[in-house]
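Q: Got a minute? One more chain.
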Amino acid sequence: MGHGTGDTAITRRALLGLMAAAAARPTGGEASSTLERAIPASGESVPAVGLGTWRTFDVGASKAERDPLEDVLGRFVALGGRVIDSSPMYGTAESVVGDLAAELGITGKLFLATKVWTSGRDAGVAQMEASLRKLRARRLDLMQIHNLLDWRTHLATLRAWKDAGRIRYLGVTHYTASAYDELERVLRAEPLDFVQVNYSLGEREAERRILPVARERGVAVLVNRPFSEGGLFQRVRSRALPAFAAEFDCASWAQFFLKWILAHPSVTCVIPGTSRPDHLVDNMAAGRGRLPDAATRERMTALIAS
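A: Always. Here it is, folded:
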C-alpha cells in the first residue's frame, strides 16, 4: 500500500557519508535533479517536496525515539530537501528539529518554516522568540500565522520582523475548508509571501478558491495533509498501482498522491510528514522525474473517486 516496508537504519557515520556524497554529486545527480519551484515574492527556488513535522517529530529525548528522526532528517537533506515546516502547536517538534539539525550540522541547509499560534502581540513575540531558540536559528525563513489566530495583530509584528531581517517571508495557514471564506479574504486584502493550506486527492476544495487566488496574488503555496490524514491509502489498500503511473515516473501510491498535487501550477511545495526513513525516501522520489499532464491528472482523480 503506498509506502514500502523494510526500514533501513543507518549509522550516523554512514548517514554523514551519504550527505557528503550528495553534496559532491555533479549536476544531473539525484539531489540536483529534484523538482524546484520559485517563490513568487522573490524568485528564490525551493525544492517542491518538503517535510512536515506534525505528530511525527513530537517525541521525547530518548535515543530510541530520536534516532529514526535523525535518519529521516539526514536523508531528507541528502536527497535534496530543504523546506521543513513546524509549529509551537506540534509539541516538541521544533526542539527536535533544532537539536537533530544541529547534531547533523545541517541547520544552515534548511529552509525553516514555523508558526505563531497564540493571541496578543506580546504573547506572539514571546512565542516566536522561543521558536528561534528551539530551532537554533538566528532568523527564520518563514513565519506563518497558524490557522489565522489573531492574524491582524501578528501580521503587524511579522512585517516588523521581516523589515528587521528576523524572518525572510511571512504567511498564513489553515487546514480545513471551513476556514476558506476568511482565508480568501485575507489573501485578497493583505500582501503575503506564503499561504499554507490542505489539498489532496481527498480534499480538493482549495483548487476552486484558494489556489487561484494565491496564483493571482503572487503568493507561494505550501500544501499540508497531502494524504488526507492517511485516508487516501485506505482507499487504495487493496489496489495495485495502475500501469499508467509509469508514464510520469511514479513507483508508489505515495508518489501518485504527491505528484498529483505537484502537477498543479499554483503549488510551490508539498510537506508530507513521516517518522520513517523508508517513507521519506519514497516521498522524496515524487519530486523527481515527470509529472502528470492535465489529462492524466483527471484520470488519476477519476481512479481515486471510483
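A: Residues 4-10, 19-32 have pLDDT under 50 and may be disordered.
Q: Perfect, thanks.
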